[in-house]
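Q: What would this complex look like in 3D?
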Amino acid sequence: MLRTLWIAASGMQAQTLNIDVISNNLANVNTSGFKRSRADFQDLLYETIRPAGVASSAGTQVPTGIQLGEGTRPVATQKIFLQGDYQHTDGDLDMAIEGDGFFQPNGEVAYSRAGAFKLDSYGRIVTPDGFFMEPEISVPSDTTKISIGTDGTVSVLRAGETEASEVGTIQLTKFTNPAGLKSIGRNLYLSTSASGDAITGTAGEDGFGTIAQGYLEMSNVKVVEEMVNMIVAQRAYEINSKAIQTADQMLQMANNIKR
Amino acid sequence: MNEAIYSATSGALVNQMRLEILSNNLSNINTVGFKEDRSSFKSYLPGFQDVFGGGPKEVFKSKDITNFQVAFEGTKTDLSPGELKYTGNSLDMALDGKGFFSVKTTDGIQYTRKGDFTLNDEGFLVTQEGLPVLGEGGKIKISGQEISVDSEGNLSVDGTRLDALKIVDFPKPNSLRKVGNTLFVPVNHTITGNRAKDVKVQEGFIELSNVNAIRLMTEMIELLRGYESYQKVIRSIDSVTSTAINEVGKVE
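A: Here is my prediction, written as structure tokens for the whole assembly.
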């Protein structure tokens, strides 16, 4: 049978994955703190049918040889940690990180860029899923105003008081290779051996970004770009299917030689 | 038997091989840094050469007259540049001009045009496969925030120059062969690359596959129809032979 069938099938499978990645990006176009992914491909091994450089006769050599590629395969889906745009929300507990860094909403286990925090019944600052921050920060029940500094200092103004009091500091985490983080959904990432160990620090220092209160970082997915990627992926899928059709027709012709 | 049937078969087989090469190009139409393979053929025309040697009579004398065959000669990688696409990622690099990035593998240094690099857990600049990218001073370890690469390939971290990317060019065409994973190696060990001169590094760009879909579609139609014609020739020869066997000697 023609190798084309399998070679082109590998191309179609790769483009299916490409579309999967693109559609997940598009599904999260309004998810705050979401980072888009990109599928990355490589060519497969080459079968050397006739090696280049071997002697073809005395004193001459084959200049090019025959190398037959076996198709393509996905090698990575890479998270692109480019900054998303900011959206002004006025929410006291909405925070965006301007620059590098992650919030630690799940007790040094998981990390996030999504900054839409809430208060739970104990007054703790938690994510919409109820994970509190590490270190835990609680706000007294008679608080009238919460203010968060660019360095992550959380101060509250309590009823009947004129001066704000500090209740804690939001710490940020960064990684040598954020693209190596593992996404676990809910806007959370886990550290892996590829991302390197978490480096904890204060916002605004040692290369950490600063915290902007009253803003949310929007998804960094750009619809136009994803639409273009989708067109490219679909057409690539289509053209690989044409190669399969061609191979099929050729086999049919071959079968028809013998009457 | 009519030996022309083998000539037609050789033509059909070559077109089959062309389709296989072509479909590998098509399957890599979205592979960053991929370079298209082109196929070339050679013909065995011993009788035809005699025309120039000993006059037309020789053609008919030659025993190889029916041996007009075509064979696959080789694949040649088209190293023409692919289009550059802006990504904004500081670790995406594309080469504008001739040259290759050098990466360290277990089989020695190999070369690639696929510049969508990343960092590993130790902070080394690596390919998506995890192979370290080489600078003039060996592996490149990046510890810092702002990574920037100028057009000469000098890599700076937070404003301090760290190393220059080892970008190598190979003088002769056809001196490289593909080993998969978008990597190239010299065809033999005696070929060594020189430091690339006429090349610019574009940070934040990736080089797309240089596969030209329109040209390949046209080629696919052409080879399919060519294949069809060869089948028709084979059938015609078959029916001629059939007539010779079954009809010529028939006694009414």
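A: To summarize the key features: The radius of gyration of chain A is 27 Å. Chain A is about 20% helix and 30% strand.
Q: Very helpful, thank you.
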